[in-house]
Amino acid sequence: MAVMINPERSGLLRATPRLMQILRVLARHKFLGALRGKRHWPPPKEVRETFEELGLAFLKFGQVLAMRRDLLPGAYIDELELLHDQLPALGFDAVRATVEAELGAPLTKLFATFGETPLAAATIAQVHEATLLDGRRVAVKVQRPDLESMISTDIAALNYLVALGESLFPRLRALDLPVVVREFANSLNRETDFIREARSILLFRTALADLPDLWIPDVVADCSSAAVLTMDFSDGERVDLYARHHPEAMPQAIGTLVRLMLQTIFEEGLFHADPHPGNVLVLPDGRLSLLDFGMTGELDEAMRNSLTLLLEAVVKGDARAAKEAYLEMAPHGSEKVNRAGLLLDIKAVLNEIHGNDLSEISIGDSFDSLLRAGSRNGVHNPPEFFLLTRAFVILESMIRQLDPEHNYMGSFRDEIARLTAQHFSLARIQEKTTKFAREMERLINEGPADSRRILRRIAEGNLGRLQAPAIEALGGRISRNLERLTGSIAAAALVIGGALLMLAPLGGRQHLFGETMVVSGIIGTLLICIGAVRRDRGRR
Fold it and tell me: Domain locations in the chain?
């Protein structure tokens, strides 16, 4: 069954014991004094040890904070990146019970062999080697039981801590900590959903099928579920260990890594957000094998276009274009952004980038600087941008570890040139032209009918209910003003008409009727004025 983390299910009463335990650990590590300001923050190493002591959810939360380089000083980021992702292994009985409950059959009916000792045990799951009934060698990723209750309680406790901290120290509100906790909960929901991970694997296999130097293990669907994921076994060596004995193979391997990252981002809107050496193996035939798709990012077409414009502006050193492209990636709340300050900070970032040698430029560090500049000036950065920055930082760090002399930016430039040429190839232009022609044909065919429907609704006074509250409120005010205007015109017409009848030398009933019209117009005008005053007072 899929884990759906919902902190609202953990009320204050249920979360209180865990909350008190967390407060005791924080007090012992001098965290509570940090509320008085940065000068009272505990040392970075003690912060890391605190997260490790608090357990599963806080280990993951520390890893999320390690991506938020705009919130924490570099020393704390560096320490949080060292958070280990290892927990004591589950007993085999618990693993057997989970697999059999998820797949609906005894273990012996599903696998010919199943290793009792895990190959790895992390916070979310552990991996066992197994053999299918047809002899196929596989790796089985089994989720830890009771994740939902444990993580939901910890996130509820985090929410209470954040709310308490913001009420006691209002300056903490500038950090948007509730947003950080919400993003953390969403990331855990994604990471604990093995159905989503299986879908990501299939998408990456399809997107990278033309890379001959890369192999991604396939999913065994019959032996997979929301909490069990069975894949082809990848019998390879960690790429960093392989590099020690085969340095001559690293240029080609690095080229493959750069290509898979950029191709999936710009062609498919996907990227592997955790490309560290433990997730990249070298197979006996020399191909790379990419593992662990629990943490992946997705970029829609609009964000991909904005990212392309941002990269072009950074390369050209155009601060204004970089600012606009950056704001397009984070449009929410952009009306509150200090645009002048953001432009100055981006200029400083670009000056620093272009003051260095091209081979020394880091895409991850450049994105990191943009995130910090944005946060200082009121930009609400999208979670995808944090993940993307983290992915580039990890990839660049691994490349420098594999081959310190490698020109990373040269590989990046070559791959961008290849993607650009492919983007403007005759086949791609023909595909886009055909798509555009179909859209135009649809517009021409359906446009007149749509126009008639709109005109008919306008004539009937029925354009449908607008959902935006601000537009609805504006519509209400316009409607009320139109009512007042109509009533005022009618009252004025009565007064003017009555006055004309009274002035006409007709006498008799006409004069009396004119007086009645004038009095009615004056009373109507007074009623309209009284109603307007009452409504205005009610709104205030």
Answer: 7-87+150-187, 88-143+193-233, 237-424, 426-464, 469-539
Q: Tell me the C-alpha distance between 277 and 289, whole Å.
A: 11
Q: Half-sphere exposure of 233 toward its Cβ, with a 13 Å CA cutoff? A: 16
Question: 371 with 349: CB under 8 angstroms?
Answer: no
- Residues designated as active site: 274
How far is residue 77's CA from residue 384's CA, in Å, rounded to a whole number? Answer: 18
Cβ atoms of 394 and 363 closer than 8 Å: no
Residues 6+ away with beta carbon under 8 Å from 194: 141, 143, 224, 225, 226, 227, 228, 229
pLDDT in tens, 163-173: 877 777 776 66
Residue type, 271: F
pLDDT tens digits for range 144-169: 887 777 788 888 888 887 887 777 77
263-266: long-range contacts (C-beta < 8 A, 24 or more apart)?
263/207, 263/208, 263/211, 263/415, 263/419, 264/204, 264/207, 264/208, 265/299, 265/304, 265/307, 265/388, 266/304, 266/308, 266/419
| 388-407 pLDDT, tens digit each | 888 888 888 888 889 888 77
List alpha helices for 173-300, DSSP H: 177-191, 194-207, 239-245, 250-263
DSSP result, 408-463: HHHHHHHHHHHHHHHHTSHHHHHHHHHHHHHHHHHHHHHHHHHHHHHHHHHHHT--
Q: Which fold has domain 88-143+193-233?
A: Phosphorylase Kinase; domain 1 (3.30.200)
Give residue 105's identity as a one-letter amino acid code.
A
The per-residue DSSP string of 157-192 comes to HHHHHHHHHHHH-GGGGGGTHHHHHHHHHHHHHHHT
**Distance separating alpha carbons of residues 362 and 380, to the nearest angstrom:** 23
pTM (global) more than 0.90 = no
Burial category of 475 from C-beta neighbours within 10 Å (exposed 0-12, middle 13-18, buried 19 and up): middle
